[in-house]
Design a protein that fits this description.
Helix content is 29%, strand content 21%. The protein is of the alpha+beta class. The chain has a 6-stranded mixed β-sheet with strand order 11-12-23-22-18-19. Strand 3 and strand 4 form a beta hairpin. Helix 4 runs antiparallel to helix 5 and helix 7 packs across helix 8.
Length: 601
């Protein structure tokens, strides 16, 4: 029996050994797979950390479809006071051709390019934006205006190498000539940060964002209804047509991609005076800015003719008192009572009105303020103890086209109204008193004899606080209110629109609907209001009111919302009244700022 057992054990041992080997093989394969996954995860983490270091918002595209994606962001060079320089392609940058965008000496963006020529073209374009702003600032500070400094044309000179044949001067490539005098947009929209984008000049249709979900739901509803037994053939084809029409309404076109045509060669900046005449292929634009208020005519009454000194018909505006607008009274939190504004802090000096295909932000650096805005003699900057600017500019961008349902647009065709306001002497006197060293608000009895609802001191102090805190505090900036008013009932507007007449609108969303900018070198602050991001029904109402622009008398007031008795009664910052806004009288904004508008030249 023992011998038999031994024989059986010997016969079973090979099978046991085979089974154990198979198990070890399975564990080995699992271990190898785990190691591969760990290695893959390490590589992905390395790629993620490299992309984060370079300051890009998203990773480098790995496919053509990813490279053709939407723009990654908007970089406003002037607002952020940025600088640009070529940099080493370190920190896991995908190419050695890199540009660094720095804000406050800290690299905020790093752009990488496939070639040296592309990098040099972008370096030139971004430098033009920064230099143009610097020249404008120098001209504004100079008593001689813009005569001292101006932009010059230049070109990029390309060299294949230093070893040239005798007589070959390595001339300037005319295809590489760039003009710096052309108008440059202060916001560079970067559609590709790490790779060159290609794909032709054809416009492409696409559905993105919320529109994609709406199209998906529409297609599903159409399929469900089409499969119903009660659906007739005629109803089926009608459903197909409606579904296709709805999806077409949700489609948008992608803008054409900007591509560089510079040759891949070493680039060198050459002054225009050293170029052969044959290489100058760009016109030198005018550096003169349009005069603020040239797009309208000031009249005494709304019925007066709206003809300027050159005989051109333009929209007109009328100086008004802020008492026509109602504001919160002292004690409003308990009484909920509103009163006519006790006064205004700024006087309207000029108004501009124009239409454009897109919104024009940052009006102050784009225009030249006339002599009537000069306030330096009243209070030199060195003697000022307050932050409130001598000049306050407000622009209102109003959409004039009905949007497609379900499609959100933050910009587009519209009407822009710009008011230029100068600080009143009464406001200046209150600021001088309330910002003096040792001022005690509780001991201030300068308005003790005046009616509490007629006092301006609380409103002036609130405005001074707003100018100091709002640029860095979005929640406080959201207290800026627009008060629109018009003769809507007289024009026969529907009640669902007329009921909002004279109601204040809080501009709550910082950098979306409200843009508050300080220009200390101009002694100007500007608040840009964009109504384009407002809801669908509001933009439908604006498109409806477009037909009433020439018939109405439109009043706009601006105020900072007071929320306790130390800030009440509210005081209007400034107000303006416009009339005769006919389509034939309003000028084109692009032509106005380019200096090619015949009515305003």
């Amino acid at each position: 029996n023992n011998n038999n057992n031994n024989n059986n054990t010997q016969e079973q041992s090979p099978s046991l050994t085979s089974t154990s080997s198979k198990r070890l093989s399975i564990f080995g394969q699992a271990a190898q797979a785990a190691e591969q996954r760990i290695q893959t995860a390490k590589e992905e983490l390395t790629r993620l950390s490299g992309a984060a270091v370079t300051g890009l918002e998203s990773l480098r595209p790995t496919t053509t479809s990813q490279a053709d994606s939407a723009p990654r962001g908007v970089l406003d060079l002037l607002r952020e006071k940025a600088s640009v320089s070529a940099s080493m392609g370190h920190s896991a940058a995908p190419t050695p051709f890199c540009l660094s965008i720095k804000v406050k000496s800290e690299t905020k963006w790093k752009f990488c390019f496939d070639g040296h020529a592309d990098m040099m073209r972008w370096l030139s374009a971004v430098s033009d934006v920064i230099v143009k702003s610097s020249v404008d600032a120098a001209a504004a500070r100079s008593s001689e205006g813009s005569a001292g400094w101006e932009l010059e044309d230049y070109c990029i000179r390309s060299h294949e190498g230093e070893g040239k044949e005798d007589g070959d001067e390595g001339g300037v490539d005319s295809n590489a000539a760039l003009s710096t005098a052309r108008a440059v947009d202060a916001s560079l929209r970067c559609s590709a940060a790490t790779t060159a984008v290609s794909g032709g000049d054809e416009a492409r249709w696409m559905i993105s964002g919320n529109n994609l979900y709406i199209a998906w739901a529409l297609a599903n509803v159409a399929l469900i209804v089409a499969r119903r037994s009660s659906t007739s053939i005629d109803q089926y084809w009608m459903l197909v047509v409606l579904a296709n029409f709805g999806i077409w309404q949700l489609c948008t076109t992608r803008p054409k991609v900007f591509t560089s045509d510079l040759p891949h060669a070493t680039a060198k900046i050459q002054p225009v005076s050293e170029r052969p005449a044959s290489t100058i292929n760009a016109k030198k634009g005018s550096s003169q800015k349009p005069l603020a208020g040239n797009t309208t005519v000031q009249v005494s009454n709304a019925e007066d003719p709206n003809i300027n000194k050159n005989g051109h018909q333009l929209p007109s505006w009328v100086p008004i008192s802020s008492s026509v607008l109602d504001v919160r009274s002292h004690g409003y939190l308990s009484s909920k009572k509103k009163i006519p504004s006790p006064g205004e802090l700024y006087e309207c000096m000029a108004v501009d009105c124009f239409v454009s295909n897109s919104r024009f932000p940052d009006i102050a650096p784009r225009v030249k303020l006339g002599e009537k805005f000069d306030t330096n003699a009243a209070d030199p900057a060195m003697n000022k103890t307050w932050k409130s600017p001598d000049i306050f500019i407000v622009s209102i961008s109003i959409p004039t086209e009905a949007p497609r349902f379900g499609q959100s647009t933050d910009d587009g065709p519209g009407l822009t109204i710009v008011g230029y306001f100068k600080m009143k002497e009464e406001t200046r006197s209150i600021l001088r008193r309330t910002t003096a060293k040792g001022y005690d608000p509780s001991a201030d009895e300068s308005d003790a004899d005046a009616d509490v609802q007629k006092r301006l001191t609380n409103g002036v102090r609130l405005w001074e606080r707003y100018c100091r805190e709002a640029p860095n505090d979005p929640s406080f900036q959201a207290r800026f209110k627009l008060i629109p008013s018009a003769n809507l009932e007289e024009m026969g507007c529907p009640s669902y629109i007329a009921k909002y007449n004279g109601k204040p609108v809080l501009i709550k969303r910082n950098q979306v609907t409200g843009f508050f900018t300080d220009y200390p070198y101009l002694n100007v602050m500007e608040f840009d209001i964009s109504l384009h991001p407002f809801p669908y029904l509001f933009k439908q109402a604006m498109a409806y009111l477009k037909d009433y622009f020439d018939k109405g008398v439109w009043t706009f007031g601006f105020v900072v919302e007071g929320r306790d008795d130390n800030e009440l009664p509210e005081v209007i910052i400034g107000a303006m009244k416009l009339c005769r806004l006919s389509q034939t009288a309003i000028v084109n904004g692009e032509d106005f700022f380019a200096g090619t508008c015949s009515k305003t030249s």
